Amino acid sequence: MKSGDNDVLFVELIERGEDDTIRSPANGERYTIESDLVEPIILGKNIHRYEPPQTDLGVIYPYESTEDGTEIIPENELQNKYPKTYSYFVDFEDRLRGRQSEHMRYETWYALNRPRKKSFFENPKIIVPDICERSEFTIDNSGEYFIGNTGYGIVPKKNSKSMRQYLLAVLNSSTTWFYIYHTSTVLENDFRRFLASYLGPLPVPDVDPLSDHESEAGDRTQKLAGLGEDQTRRYREKSTLNLSLLDHLGNHSVNQSLGETGFIQPPRDSSQSLLQETTEQKPNFSTSQSIFG
Q1: Are strands 146-147 and 38-42 parallel, antiparallel or unpaired?
Q2: Comparing C-alpha atoms, which of 204, 216, 221, 227 is closest to residue 157?
Q3: Fewer Cβ close by (within 10 Å): the C or N end of the chain?
Q4: Sheet with 19-23, edge to edge strand ranges
């Protein structure tokens, strides 16, 4: 997906609900717009090997699925049905209209440059950054995330969870990286690109972990699917850990030793808490009295 103006159409998600509270990078202002037209979007820099997708960005997506595919919502309908979103667009109308050029045409002034099919993004899929220094594939099992133009999505023909886990293990393997490393375009700092034209010829066995389990190839495929699932689970558990050394050690001279660090998980950013201040820093601070006493 390519927006044509990321600062207007890719927004910070502050609070989600029936209406979403967003912040526009274009002017730093907060807006409330209809949640039906805001989708979480992930960029390549936020896609990491086996890690659950996470993003605080949303794309304002004024499109709907029809029998003919994905079509933009007509302006009169947008204004009547989604007045808050329309008002947001109007605030940047001159800027959005200014994108039109001889070489860059838009369906209408608030359209995205390349919206892609909505149904594709709403499928469970494998995702990968455009540019990597190793295989960085992970899975969007919920079909929740749209993808910016710095990433790619792969929807397998047999799109079962076990098939995605199997392909994830194969695509993150050293064998796949060796293949991409020697066939892809060489970029600065020895990075490589994961374009479809490079991944397409990759010889991945067409074996279904569910239906081909009795064959030798099917047995191996099941093991790879299990490996992909185990790695995904481990990275998910890792993402819940507080890895800040300052949070673990605190700011006091009397505290746990470095060898004891990690056995108890402190709250995130607790090193910045007022409770970490010493009497030298806060001479009048006292915890000797309780409001419940």
Answers
A1: parallel
A2: 204
A3: C
A4: 30-34, 19-23, 10-15, 57-60, 38-42, 146-147
Element (DSSP H or E) covering residue 30: strand 30-34
Other CB atoms within 10 A of residue 138 CB: 23
| pTM listed for this prediction | 0.77
Cα–Cα nearest to 136, from 188, 199, 189? 199
As a dihedral over the C-alpha atoms of residue 103, residue 85, residue 40, residue 123, rounded to 10 degrees, the angle is -80
Distance of CA 92 to the CA centre of its chain: 26
β-bridge pairing 192-193 and 138-140: unpaired
Q: Are strands 57-60 and 10-15 parallel, antiparallel or unpaired?
A: antiparallel
Buried b (16+ CB within 10 A) or exposed e, 32-61: bbbbebbbbbbbbebbbbbbbbebebbbbb
- Its sign, for the CA torsion 130, 238, 146, 22, is negative
* pLDDT tens per residue across all 293 residues of the chain: 899 999 999 999 999 999 999 999 999 999 999 999 999 999 999 999 999 999 999 999 999 988 888 999 999 999 999 999 999 999 999 999 998 887 888 899 999 999 999 999 999 999 999 999 999 999 999 999 999 999 999 999 889 999 999 999 999 999 999 999 999 989 999 999 988 888 888 888 777 776 655 666 667 788 888 888 888 888 888 877 777 777 766 655 555 565 565 566 676 666 566 555 555 655 555 544 444 44
Instruction: Produce one character per residue of 177-189: b if its CB has 16 or more CB atoms within 10 Å, e if not.
Output: bebbeeebeeeee
Q: What are the structural domain ranges in the chain?
A: 6-121, 125-239
Stated as kind and residue range, the H or E segment containing 214 is none
Residue 205 CA to residue 226 CA, distance in Å, equals 16
